[in-house]
Specification:
10-stranded mixed beta sheet, 40% helix, 19% strand, Isopropylmalate Dehydrogenase, two-stranded antiparallel ribbon, 12 helices, binds magnesium ion, binds 3-isopropylmalic acid, alpha/beta, 2 domains
Length: 355
């Protein structure tokens, strides 16, 4: 049986890194996938006038999983909000019900020198997963503009969460922690926001079903600080959409480069979306120097979560470890005096390490 994979190469470095990831996928699971190209984001705006067509969305919905590179770029930055490339991403997340965004951030021991933290902090290493709520909160709340009586322009975005949305993401975090070090840190801003107070209440209510998990709460400003002070304290972090967006970029840089971190966006059903957490990096697009590792590890996550192909997923991860241990580096993680490898060359090295 073959699985159907919807493939959105996207914009900027998207096509380069997705092609690398598919080469690796074909090595570990040859002939197991049908690839269905989907045009979305900036390319879709250029071709169809909208970031996501109904047809593109339907292909994603009818697939077994979606693999995405990245969307966006300066060319489309001046378009109104509903026509920006990012809308494609937000639309797919919502329409596919991908409410749980899993963003692991671990420090590869061999890349300790690329970690920007103090040496003694980097030496301790870290291995955390940020579980980000992905289809609610301020990203999807009511927004708009109006004028007050004096003609002063007002813009607003609304952070809204209901109990069901919080409960289901909390469950994902507790389940995941059960397979790891059994610690969940719930991050909110409950000293100010009502939506955060409900968040905290519900996370504690759900926690009652998981007596073996140790739950703590942390305010988001403190969490931003603790991440750079002592990242080793975190196992699973669960948080709202925008806090998770911000904290996951911060966590990624602690690993040395945002070019290393994968993500999985999961629904309660079968189909998920797998993508690197970084953007389309228009400044280096087409130069052949982008780091494909985040996308390749995203493929490993897909094999593990969507298709229960644990052995193949582990093979990819081990090949990446091996490649880094051999000293192969792309330019974003260059910490030795070797020549940096380009996208294709590091992919070749990873494929060689699979053997
Ligand atoms: C991410 C990105 C997106 C987000 C953008 C591109 C809309 O930053 O996946 O983290 O904010 O969710
Ligand atoms: Mg982000």
């Amino acid at each position: 049986m073959k699985y159907n994979l919807a493939v959105i190469e996207g914009d900027g470095i998207g096509p380069e890194i997705v092609r690398s990831a598919i080469r690796v996928l074909e090595q570990v699971a040859p002939g197991k996938f049908n690839y269905q190209p989907v045009i979305a984001g900036g390319r879709s705006i250029d071709l169809h006038g909208v970031p996501l067509t109904d047809e593109a969305l339907a292909t994603c919905k009818n697939s077994d999983s979606v693999l995405l590179g990245a969307v966006g770029g300066p060319k489309w930055d001046t378009l109104p909000g509903h026509l920006r490339p990012e809308r494609a991403l937000l639309g797919i997340r919502k329409e596919l019900g991908l409410f749980a965004n899993i963003r692991p951030a671990r420090l590869y021991p061999v890349l300790k020198d690329a970690c920007p933290l103090r040496r003694e902090t980097a030496e301790k290493g870290f291995d955390m997963v940020i579980v980000r709520e992905l289809t609610g909160g301020i990203y999807y709340g009511e927004r708009g503009r109006k004028q007050d009586s004096e003609g002063n322009t007002i813009a607003f975005d609304t952070e809204t969460y209901n109990q069901t949305e919080i409960d289901r993401i909390a469950k994902v975090a507790f389940e995941l922690a059960g397979k790891r070090r059994k610690k969940v840190c719930s991050v909110d801003k409950a000293n100010v926001l009502e939506s955060s107070r409900l968040w905290r209440e519900r996370v504690h209510a759900v926690a009652k079903d998981y007596p073996d998990i140790q739950l703590s709460d942390m305010l988001v400003d403190n969490a931003a600080m603790q991440l750079v002070k002592n990242p080793a304290q975190f196992d699973v972090i669960v948080t709202a959409n925008m806090f998770g967006d911000i904290l996951s970029d911060e966590a990624s840089q602690l690993t040395g480069s945002i070019g290393l971190l994968p993500s999985a966006s999961l629904s309660s059903g079968r189909c998920g979306m797998y993508e690197p957490i970084h953007g389309s990096a228009p400044d280096i697009a087409g130069k052949g120097i982008a780091n494909p590792i985040a996308t390749i590890v995203s493929v490993a996550m897909m094999l593990r979560y969507a298709f229960a192909m644990e052995a193949e997923a582990a093979r990819i991860e081990q090949a990446i470890d091996k490649t880094l241990q051999r000293g192969c580096r792309t330019v974003d993680i260059l910490d030795n005096d070797t020549q940096p490898l380009g996208t294709i060359a590091i992919t070749d090295a990873i494929i060689a390490a699979l053997a």
